[in-house]
Amino acid sequence: MMSETITLGKALNHGLRRALENDPKVVIMGEDVGKLGGVFRITDGLQKDFGEDRVIDTPLAEAGIIGTAVGLAIRGYRPVCEIQFDGFVFPAYNQIVAQVAKMYYRSLGKVRVPIVIRIPYGGGIGAVEHHSESPEAYFAHTPGLKVVTCSNPADAYAMIQQSIISDDPIVFFEPKRRYWEKGVVDLDAPSDFPLHASRVVRDGSDATVIAYGPMVRTALDAAQAAAEDGRNLEVVDLRTLSPLDLGPVFESVRRTGRAVVVHEAPGNLGLGAEIAARITEECFYSLEAPVLRVTGFDVPYPAARVEEEYLPDLDRVLDAVDRSFGW
User: Fold this and answer.
1) Which of 206, 217, 229, 264 is buried deepest, with most CB atoms within 10 A?
2) Rounded distance, CA 324 to CA 226, Å?
3) Which of 216, 81, 218 is nearest to 150 (CA)?
4) CB 236 within 8 Å of CB 200
5) Is 141 annotated in the active site?
6) What b/e string do you get for 182-191 counting C-beta neighbours within 10 Å, with b at 16 or more?
7) Tell me: the pLDDT tens digits for 63-118?
8) Which has the closest alpha carbon to 241: 274, 215, 218, 216?
């Protein structure tokens, strides 16, 4: 058994390498993914080892990248498209929601488009305009797309491979501020944890904190801080945003009686609203307080120098937990 302590970014690199090795129909395409190895070096070394026909440097044209991938997928390939930054996905939005999401339904199930669209997302790296966004709700709202996001190296390694072998189109969100955080990854063991399943990452009894992607670490840090004050928080990593897997969330909330949903995207019509509604529907008689949300503010991502004022942090999560106990 080969376990390594590696960064989340390196885990994705290993996962992509394994996918390229396992299936000659897998191709990676995107801006600067080849010779440069991607702006975050997630595809570093792959073009050198697999060639320019498998790891393809594309023009700066996101609609062209996804449109080309649709044609490749229809002809039996498994394209993995990198959108260099989250804010660059919008030129491809028409292709994703009008073609990628609808092809299977439009063909009455005869045509599959097994495309993975990798999107580094979220703030926290001090980037310039258009380089920090949280667009996950747009895609989770679109029927026909599966949407997932990893929060740690082990999940990154497994989930990227599971996404590539899936016959469904998958939007794969990567928390860019967590690319350099390390964890233990078993590079040999196949993942026996389903792709579209949430996971309890910290057991607790007093309140449930639900998060995904970059905010899972924030939630865990808040739980650690709360423990010092004698409060025991359970943390659930959603992992999958469409379809949502809320069974573990409902089970947790029925025990704790309190729920706080945390995400970096703006609160208005964000994933937190849907999760809060479903918890209220399923767990109403178990709730001791309303389901609360900790989110980004309803403004564009601010300039880097004030970014930390925008991003949900440990204090805001703990404040919400306190408010929940105030009811």
Assistant:
1) 264
2) 13
3) 216
4) yes
5) no
6) ebebeeeeee
7) 999 999 999 999 999 999 999 999 999 999 999 999 999 999 999 999 999 999 99
8) 274
3-state helix, strand, coil split of the chain in percent (to 5) is 40, 20, 40
Structure tokens at 256: 């704790």
Structure tokens at 317: 């999560």
3-class state of residue 83 by DSSP: coil
Strand 3-7 to 182-186 pairing: antiparallel
Options 14, 130, 131, 196, the catalytic residue: 131
Question: What is d(CA 43, CA 28) in angstroms, rounded to the nearest whole number?
Answer: 9
The one-letter code for the residue type at 49 is D
H helix runs in 141-212, sequence order: 153-165
Q: Cα(234)–Cα(199) distance, rounded to whole angstroms?
A: 11
The residue length of the chain stands at 327
| Token pair recorded at residue 245 | 């897997």
